[in-house]
Design a protein that fits this description.
With 395 residues, the protein is α/β, with parallel strands linked by helices. It has 3 domains: 120 residues, Nucleotidyltransferase, domain 5 (2-Layer Sandwich); 107 residues, Helix Hairpins (Orthogonal Bundle), CATH 1.10.287.4070; 141 residues, no CATH class. It is 53% helix and 12% strand. It has 15 helices and 9 strands. It has a 5-stranded mixed β-sheet. The protein has a two-stranded antiparallel ribbon with strand order 6-7. Helix 4 packs across helix 5, helix 9 packs across helix 11 and helix 13 packs across helix 15.
Length: 395
């Protein structure tokens, strides 16, 4: 008899539901089930493991919450499966007709989900390779550091506008060796610069305050942390398993950060293909044309993983497409890639990919289409080309 544990994770506790079979009336069972409430401490972990579950199901709530429980379960030999947020929400409401969402309802729905879908691997979130999990964790930390730095830098620049206006708009970047940016290092009294010394002697500003120097020290510390993460990312990306991916990414002009972000979403590429290792394409009747139409299912899943799959919304005479699902960080990073490597002609990729995307971008802009729409289209086209190149080079 298999023991299935549904686990809804909160900030400092979990709600657990143990089943050996799917209840015939889940809604009634919800009111009778002896749900477990366990705290994120030694007693709670021991209580969870004492349930002696064979398989545990939970939602992928990031590195902060589910990681603790999932890791302890895996170490105890329990198989851990992840169920997507949207899939669980639809299943709970439409299939089980459970009452308003709460932790217990989610735990019960997770346990029931296994009995209905355990034979279909695509119903579960892919369990990522350990190196990929680490890469994803690092790119999220880099994104966090970037968000933290921006308001601090903006505050410094506003203060420098009246304290030392000659350098208020200077763009200072970290060196390849990891040395902190010269301006922030000089303001923090960590680096010397005769140029800034001379400018400061003749400044019309009112003088640098201790507050600005403290902010500069914060930026220097964040920059050092950022550099350490980038070094670790480069080491992880050097894994021979990623050679093919890095070769393709180089043709697209992806830097280490974007390569890591994309890789964390799509590795292994075989996960998007059918059992024979080829892109899954099905012929279905078109909804409107009623003619046989090709559905590129593998490509669609790939696009969605990277946040570049538009979904159609239709109501009455209104029809509109918008991008939903996928990684917001990846979507933003691809948009920045278009903005920096495709749109500017002086830095455009000097290969077939740059030519295809650049010509379409120039043509759509010349036709007067909104720039934001054009960039989104080029990012989506880039993702389609990326899928083609990755599949084409598979051994």
């Amino acid at each position: 008899m298999i023991r299935i544990l549904g686990l809804d994770v909160s900030k400092s506790s979990v709600s657990a539901c143990l089943l050996t079979e799917k209840p015939s009336d889940p809604r009634q069972f919800y009111y009778e089930c002896p749900f477990l409430k366990l705290s994120a401490d030694a007693k709670g972990i021991l209580g969870l493991l004492s349930e002696d579950a064979d398989i545990a199901l939970l939602e992928p709530t990031g590195n902060n919450y589910s990681k603790l429980w999932g890791t302890h379960l895996a170490r105890a030999g329990v198989e851990v499966r992840l169920v997507g947020h949207k899939e669980l929400r639809n299943y709970r409401a439409n299939h089980l007709a459970l009452p308003d969402k709460d932790d217990d309802a989610d735990a019960l729905a997770l346990a029931c989900y296994y009995f209905d879908y355990h034979q279909d691997p695509r119903r579960f979130v892919q369990i990522r390779d350990r190196a990929i999990v680490k890469i994803r964790e690092l790119v999220l930390r880099l994104a966090h550091l970037n968000r933290v730095q921006s308001p601090i830098i903006n505050r410094i620049r506003q203060d420098l506008a009246w304290q030392f206006p000659e350098v208020a708009l200077v763009k200072s970047r970290r060196g390849e060796s990891g040395e902190v940016p010269l301006l922030w290092g000089w303001l923090a009294l960590e680096r010397k610069s005769s140029r800034y010394d001379r400018l400061y002697e003749k400044t019309v500003g009112l003088g640098i305050t201790d507050t600005v120097r403290q902010h500069a020290r914060r930026i220097c510390n964040l920059q050092r942390e950022e550099h350490a993460i980038e070094v670790e990312l480069r080491e992880l990306l050097a894994d021979s398993r990623f050679d093919h991916y890095r070769t393709v990414f180089k043709r697209f002009g992806f830097g280490d950060r974007l390569s890591a972000i994309v890789l964390s979403q799509i590795y292994p590429i075989e996960g998007f293909l059918d059992a024979s290792g080829k892109p899954e394409v099905r012929i279905r009747q078109g909804r409107n044309s009623k003619k046989p139409t090709k559905r590129h299912l593998s490509l669609r899943r790939f696009q969605k993983a990277l946040g570049a799959a538009p979904s159609l919304e239709a109501s009455g005479d209104s029809r509109k497409a918008k991008v939903v699902g996928g990684s917001d960080l990846c979507r933003k990073s691809l948009w920045q890639w278009v903005f920096t490597r495709i749109e500017p002609k002086r830095s455009r990729l000097k290969n077939e990919i740059g030519k295809i995307l650049g010509e379409q971008l120039d043509g759509e802009k010349a036709a007067g289409r909104p720039v934001k729409l054009v960039r989104n289209r080029i990012a989506a086209k880039g993702v389609r080309l990326l899928f083609r190149e990755l599949v084409k080079g598979l051994k």
